[in-house]
Amino acid sequence: MSEQITKVNSWVLGLTGGIGCGKTAVSNMFEELGITIVDADIIAREVVLPNSKGLKAITAHFGEDILLPDGALNRAELRAKIFTNNNDKEWLNALLHPLIRIKILNDLNNATSPYVVLVAPLLFENNLDKYCDHTLLIDVPTSVQIARTVKRDNTSSEQVKSIIASQMSRADKQQKADDILNNDRSLNLVHIELVDLHKKYLQYALHNKTNSH
Q: 139 and 184 in one domain?
């Protein structure tokens, strides 16, 4: 499938960070400031909703067993299937990545706020940063990521460690990001710094708009 859109009209801030670093809390702050949020995780769920092209293709490939009684995708079943079969995993990625990308680009282009935030845990890993003008990493120590995720998802620290190990390392993300926001402190302090960043991004977006006309 070809990607129709490759250019985004808005000034885009890519927001990323590993599991448990508090991306949602920070993206909510941007939303409160009137900035449109495009969330890659939400879009990844939307492209496999009942009656979607994505879910129809998945059902044709894996059979009706991949559905829950209400017709929704059985994610646990799908994870189990692709976990043991690399070909199926590659097939699924080849199906979903273009669908997700097209929806992301459409949503970025439809944003009406002064700039738009693209939230993606795998921003750098999936090359989504190529659609961004600037990137912001929400950063906490690995020990904090583990503690927060274990508490939030009621999961084992081993499981969280394996998720962290499968993502780009914290040091590599720090190297790649244009800005880093430390989220290992009170939300009040995080908010104060975020408002300063927001003012800077408004300037960047305005400058970008002026230069593109």
A: yes
